[in-house]
């Protein structure tokens, strides 16, 4: 048995040791549990209490001594279902709280700022944050797109574009290569126009409203996000100059 599976769903190492010991021992006192689970006596009651809260252990008292028993492993599924329901309830509460949190953030947001996002999760955070600010009257202008970067980045951007399309936001994309699966996927997207201009830039650049994203995919992938209306206007003009030279698809 791989105990890390239980860790993945929220059990501590101590809880796993004690639960497995209880399964083997059957009805047992804390002394035997400590011996078989190889845990300290100071932790056993805390761990047993947590297992009882999870519905995975119980006890009875015989002659002033507590005897603990493991619940059926089937109860682990019940625990997962309860955890899932609890997460859904918390999600609803967070959704109700989001407008207030966003209002606080937007009240202090600067018109001019520069941030560097590192790693694929950082890039993902940057592009989804900008997407939230776009409306159907806006457009996403992207240039220097190449298909040869690692597949995980292509998958991430395709997922982002699905969210963009769902919001009916137009995107114009200037590819630096063609005849690839990634290129063909963009040609089929709704609310998307694709043209090709090979070798226009070593880095992909994205212009969304007043924010410019400059992507690099080296050893440490990153996204430089520049929020500046004047710079965004310059990049937008540059994009449309290149767009007029590009080949239509």
Care to describe what's here?
- By secondary structure, the protein is α+β, with helices and mostly antiparallel strands.
- The protein has 2 domains: 4-73, Arc Repressor Mutant, subunit A, CATH 1.10.10.10; 110-248, Endonuclease, Chain A.
- It is built from 9 helices and 10 strands.
- Strands 3-9-8-7-4-5-6-10 form an 8-stranded mixed β-sheet, sandwiched between helices.
- Helix 2 (13-25) crosses helix 4 and helix 6 runs parallel beside helix 7.
- It is elongated, with a radius of gyration of 27 Å.
- The chain starts with a helix and ends with a strand.
Uncertain regions: pLDDT < 50 for 5+ in a row? none
Distance from N terminus to C terminus (CA atoms, Å) equals 55 Å
* Radius of gyration over C-alpha positions, nearest whole angstrom: 27 Å
Q: DSSP strand (E) fraction? A: 15-25%
Bin the helical content: 40-55%
Q: Kindly state the mean pLDDT as a whole number?
A: 88
User: Helix and strand succession?
Assistant: HHHHEEHEHEHEHEEEEHE
CATH architecture classification of the largest domain: 2-Layer Sandwich
Task: Provide the CATH superfamily of the largest domain.
Answer: Endonuclease Chain A
Number of helices: 9
CATH fold name of the largest domain, please?
Endonuclease, Chain A
Shape, per Cα inertia axes: elongated
Count of domains? 2
Structural class given helices, strands, pairing? alpha+beta
Characterize the largest beta sheet: strand count, sense, and whether it forms a barrel: 8 strands, mixed
Number of separate strands:
10
CATH class of the largest domain: Alpha Beta
């Amino acid at each position: 048995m791989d105990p890390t599976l239980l860790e993945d769903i929220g059990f501590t190492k101590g809880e796993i040791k004690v639960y497995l010991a209880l399964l083997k021992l059957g009805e047992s006192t804390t002394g035997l549990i400590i011996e078989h689970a190889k845990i300290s006596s100071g932790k056993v009651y805390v761990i047993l209490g947590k297992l009882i809260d999870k519905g995975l252990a119980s006890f009875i008292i015989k002659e002033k001594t507590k005897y603990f028993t493991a619940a059926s492993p089937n109860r682990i599924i019940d625990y997962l279902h309860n955890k899932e329901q609890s997460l859904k309830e918390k999600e609803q509460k967070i959704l109700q709280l989001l407008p207030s949190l966003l209002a606080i953030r937007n009240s202090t947001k600067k018109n001019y700022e520069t941030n560097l996002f590192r790693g694929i999760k950082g890039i993902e955070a940057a592009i989804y944050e900008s997407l939230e600010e776009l409306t159907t009257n806006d457009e996403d202008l992207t240039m220097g797109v190449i298909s040869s970067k690692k597949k995980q980045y292509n998958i991430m951007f395709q997922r982002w574009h699905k969210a963009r399309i769902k919001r009916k936001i137009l995107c114009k994309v200037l590819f630096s290569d063609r005849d690839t699966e990634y290129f063909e996927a963009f040609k089929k997207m709704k609310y998307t126009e694709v043209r090709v201009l090979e070798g226009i830039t070593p880095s992909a650049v994205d212009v969304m409203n007043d924010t410019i994203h400059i992507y690099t995919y080296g050893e440490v992938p990153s996204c430089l996000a520049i929020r500046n209306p004047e710079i965004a206007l310059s990049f937008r003009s540059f994009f449309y100059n290149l767009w007029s030279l590009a080949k239509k698809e």
